[in-house]
Amino acid sequence: MTNNHAPRVAAPLTLPCGVTVKNRFYKSAMNEAMAGRNCAPTERHVRLYRTWADGGAGVLVTGNVMVDRTQLGEPGNVAVEDERDLAMLRRWAKAGTSNGTHCWIQINHPGRQSPITINQHPYAPSGGKLEGDYGRFFAEPTELTVEQIHDIVRRFANTARIAKKAGFTGVEIHAAHGYLINQFLSSADNRRTDEYGGDIEHRARFLFEVFDAVREAVGPAFPVAVKLNSSDVPIAVKTGAKDVVFAGFDETESIWVMKQLERRGVDLIDISGGTLEQPVIQTTSGAVEDRRRGVYFTEFARRVKDELTVPIALTGGFRSVRDMERALDEDITQMIGVARPLALVPDLPKRIIRDHWEGTVDLPWVTTGLKALDKAFGGILVISWFELQMNRIGRGRKPNPRIGGMRALCFAIGKHGPAALTPRRRKGRQ
């Protein structure tokens, strides 16, 4: 920056629960793919989060921490369902909360988005296999019983309780990206006819029960955030020989859910969008796509800014200080969600706040050099590439943007096995 005025991202923010975070940088969740045996956190988590805490962010949100060891969303997920790993969880939390940083654990259940290589018996609100480009990675799910739903609610609350005991300073409930809570919210995925299905009031019941149970477990002065889709990308569903309707979770429903969460005492809503069937964020073209798209979900954020008083975190596409400051000036977000840039520039917040840096983080184009492989893998290739970078930091090494896509391909095969090389599913693509 050419002036010495503190940027708006440096300003603290007080949450509804009374807790203050030191600045507006919100490191959004990315799967670290670092868990050890039995889904335990490892020393690599400690090094990675200490590096990010040293880098100056106000809030660090962990990657998916699953509430059930038998139901994982990605290979390498941490799972917390009891206190067996409490000692390492405490080391992880201590590292992530150094320098006055908040470290919030993201708690989740994958539902049907549990890869077949690690789970051949996933659960979902209703039957129906995942379609689209990622369908080959997932098995046909079994519909949850009401008793199983109640058990999962208890699991969310228990994981939140353990997170607080370990020293994490908040939790984020993952209700987006096609995982279990999002599946309940979506009319395309949830075809139940009991109290958990039907109109949005009933489809949202599971989320509200999870939120209320988590709040009771951690108390009123502990931050509880929710990651929520602005909408799912609508999916065409045939209702007859010729009739086609578009189903999913739409913006009007999302705003209604946000208002209900606000009344229940949520401390922050992390806006996102899309599912694995209809991805929004996963791209392979790096900075080219970033410049074309700009900051994600801004129009939706403008729509909700006069509807809510709860703080919003907007994530996706923030690559320059100018875009960050503009979003704060326009009051469309109160927290700047940044994820992938921090896998390459872990001290980006410190550079901006302390050093008055005024540049742009250009993410690389991730490619194997072979179009057929790039097309076959799509977003999986990009996800694996950034997981590689985080693993480097976790091993005490520096990120390396020159690593090629072929190494990410090998990483993906190592996680997903031969299924990673099978042809893409085409059924149901729009």
From TrEMBL:
**What Gene3D superfamilies would the database entry show?**
Aldolase class I (3.20.20.70)
Is Disulfide bond given among the entry's keywords? no
Q: Which InterPro entries match?
A: Aldolase_TIM, NADH_flavin_oxidoreductase, OxRdtase_FMN_N
Q: Tell me where on the tree of life, at the top rank, the source sits.
A: Bacteria
Q: Which SUPFAM superfamilies match?
A: FMN-linked oxidoreductases
MF term (GO), any: oxidoreductase activity
- Positions of the NADH:flavin oxidoreductase/NADH oxidase N-terminal domain: 12-352
Keyword terms, alphabetized: Flavoprotein, Oxidoreductase
Pfam families the UniProt entry points to: Oxidored_FMN
- Mind telling me which PANTHER family this protein's record contains? BINDING OXIDOREDUCTASE, PUTATIVE (AFU_ORTHOLOGUE AFUA_2G08260)-RELATED (PTHR43656:SF2)
- Protein name in UniProt: NADH:flavin oxidoreductase
Which organism is this entry from?
Answer: Bifidobacterium callimiconis
